[in-house]
Amino acid sequence: MAVTLPRPHRFDVYVATGGLLGGLLLVGIGLGTRPADEPIVLLDGPWPILAALWVTAGCELLRRSAPRTALLTGTAAVVLDTFTEGNLATVLMFTDLMYAAVVYGPLASARRIQWITGLLTVAGTLAPFAVWREPEALLIGVVVGIVAYGPAATGWIVRNHRDAAEAARLRAEQTALLAEVDRAQAVVAERARMARELHDMVANHLSAIAIHSTAALSIDDPATSRQALRTIRENSVEGLSEMRRLIGILRDGSGEREPAATPTLDGLPALVDGARANGLDVSLDTLGTGVDRVPAPVELAVYRIVQESLTNALKHARPGRVTVRLARRDGMLDVRVSSPYGHRDGPRAPGSGAGLVGMRERVALLGGVFGAGPEGALWTVRAELPLAEGDLT
């Protein structure tokens, strides 16, 4: 199967063409790098010079796509040129091949080239001087350093700068990506928070409205209907007021703070009284909770959990006593709301399950434990919330 070489880069074509034309010009005017009578000149005539020139120019076409192959072939060509009168263009193109092999070649090869050219420079400096004992012999090492080690060291510096720039670009892209992810997560978290607030603030009143309106339509008793309509009106007004307060917060763009008049544990008695007004037989027991020492986020979560649990009891529980208990245990605030469990006869409001999801999210955000389910003849909502400020997440 034939191997198709990649198309040379445009700059590589320019370098190869310029080097070839320059070398041909030097051959044409008879300008070499050493006299023809030197002992090292073993190949006479222009053809060996041209062969080395053409091979090196061809290697320039591969300096980017196959840098190791180009360097090995170019090394053979420059060795051939050493035994001729020499051509400056061939030597210059070889230095470019050395540079390209370090910049574009594999990292392991670039390191090896650094070591090899460095050792050759040292050897080219010390060995001739040790043999001939002439200061001029040191120039051989200088030439090797200029032709081999110099381009390799320059390529290593360029490669390091290029890799550092690429790493900086990747870090910048990663930082931008993480910032976008954080922004999206913040938007999702804020939407979830506002959804919980909207549900908790309005669902209780709407559930009461649905239940009492069903009762008013199904029971043919003027007194009962008037009482149901009175309850419907009260819940409508309170729900509308809370909705306006939430809308005001959204319009002000102050989504980072909780709604005005954030509910606290002090509001639980009024919340229980409102549930009684809607027809629930409910009791509240705080068991010496000490509301003055409860963190504000925990107070809000407890209030919303009790509020949603009473709403669910109003919609789904069987007739009977609903109990709300708060107690401190080992640095935790334990909240339990229990209601009669089983099939209920009579008017009820439909549920969506969003209330349980919202309660679970609130507890998870504070690093607590949440559970809800039947316990014998009771349906119990349980939440354990940390009271230490450092435990809140």
Give a verbal description of the structure.
- The chain has 393 residues and is of the alpha+beta class.
- It has two domains: 10-170, no CATH class; 265-393, 2-Layer Sandwich (Heat Shock Protein 90), CATH 3.30.565.10.
- It is built from ten helices and five strands; from the N terminus they run ααααααααβαββαββ.
- It has helices at residues 10-28, 46-60, 67-82, 88-104, 107-132, 138-218, 222-252, 268-277, 296-316, 354-365, and strands at residues 281-285, 321-329, 332-340, 369-375, 378-386.
- Strands 1-2-3-5-4 form a five-stranded mixed beta sheet, with helices on one face.
- Helix 9 links the parallel strand 1 (281-285) and strand 2 (321-329).
- Helix 1 (10-28) runs antiparallel to helix 4 (88-104) and helix 6 (138-218) packs across helix 10.
- The longest helix is centred in the middle third of the chain and has 81 residues, at 138-218.
- It is rod-shaped, with a radius of gyration of 43 Å.
- Residues 255-260 have low confidence and may be disordered.
Secondary-structure-based class equals alpha+beta
Low-confidence stretches: 255-260
What share of the residues lie within helices?
55-70%
Number of strands: 5
Described by the principal axes of the CA atoms, the overall outline is rod-shaped
In short:
This protein is an alpha+beta fold and 393 residues long. It folds into 2 domains: 161 residues, no CATH class; 129 residues, Histidine kinase-like ATPase, C-terminal domain (Heat Shock Protein 90, 2-Layer Sandwich).
